[in-house]
Amino acid sequence: MENTMENTKVIILAAGQGTRMRSDLAKVLHEVKGQPMIGRVLDMVGLVSPDEIYLVIGHQAERVKAATARYDVIYVEQKVQLGTGHAVLMAEPALKNYDGLTIILCGDVPLLRGETVKELRAKCLAEKLDGIILTVRLDDPQHYGRIVRGPTGQVERIVEYRDATDAEKKIDEVNSGIYCFRTRELFAALRQIQNQNDQREYYLTDVIGIMAGQGKTIGTLLTADAGQVQGVNDLEDLRRAEARLQSSPHCAAR
């Protein structure tokens, strides 16, 4: 496997407030074992060496900038939070002439490992995919988006829990929120998404259904390590991340 990710850009979504954290502090600035979550994500991305990192900021943008000032990132501001799809679109002006791969990460997933990101990119390249989703199977999928597959096992779409049918809620393969796309295909699909959903937001997940419906090739990389893709959405998640780091200090590295 390649040691670097030349001709690969990374977009990190870090604009949200995180109301379930019960704090005025931007979610990505909450600390896990003495370090802001966004710092842990950026340290991990540094290990996989993309050629550019775009950090999408919004809530408390100046504080997030101050906390990440030592990193070599390009800031993209999402002034109004209209969903994850809208957040990624904020980076389109900088990437509109770029032909390579773009990896999308979340600033509130502090335990993701660099080797997993490298594997995701490698599979996208090896199988000549237009997009790939990092997935995980969970005994209790809770409120994660479900991976909906067709009769031959092909990925058809991702359905958010709020919009899922009872049958779809029984699917145990879920979306981690981590992707790799061919950049032109990503933005072509993003320009087609709508906000006809329960939250009235522009979901990044909708690009999967759009691309699959147009005959684009969408793959998945299933990780057996659910802990590394656990998002931090509330104080209990934060405690779990702390405990995991305490028991395995290097789980977010390599």
Brief digest:
This protein is of the alpha/beta class and 254 residues long. The protein has 9 helices and 11 strands.
Q: How is this structure best described in words?
A:
This protein is an alpha/beta fold and 254 residues long. It has one domain: Spore Coat Polysaccharide Biosynthesis Protein SpsA, Chain A (Alpha-Beta Complex), CATH 3.90.550. The chain is 30% helix and 25% strand. The protein has helices at residues 37-48, 61-67, 84-89, 92-95, 114-126, 166-169, 183-190, 206-213, 235-247, and strands at residues 5-14, 31-32, 35-36, 50-57, 74-77, 101-106, 131-137, 146-149, 155-159, 173-182, 218-222. The strands form three sheets. The chain has a seven-stranded mixed β-sheet. It has a two-stranded antiparallel sheet with strand order 2-3. Strands 8-9 form a two-stranded antiparallel sheet. A hairpin with a 2-residue loop joins β2 and β3. α7 packs across α8 (206-213). It is globular, with a radius of gyration of 17 Å.
Keywords:
MobA-like_NTP_Trfase, Spore Coat Polysaccharide Biosynthesis Protein SpsA, Chain A, transferase, Nucleotide-diphossugar_trans, single chain, alpha/beta, about 250 residues, nucleotidyltransferase, seven-stranded mixed sheet, 9 helices, 11 strands, two-stranded antiparallel sheet, UDP-N-acetylglucosamine diphosphorylase activity
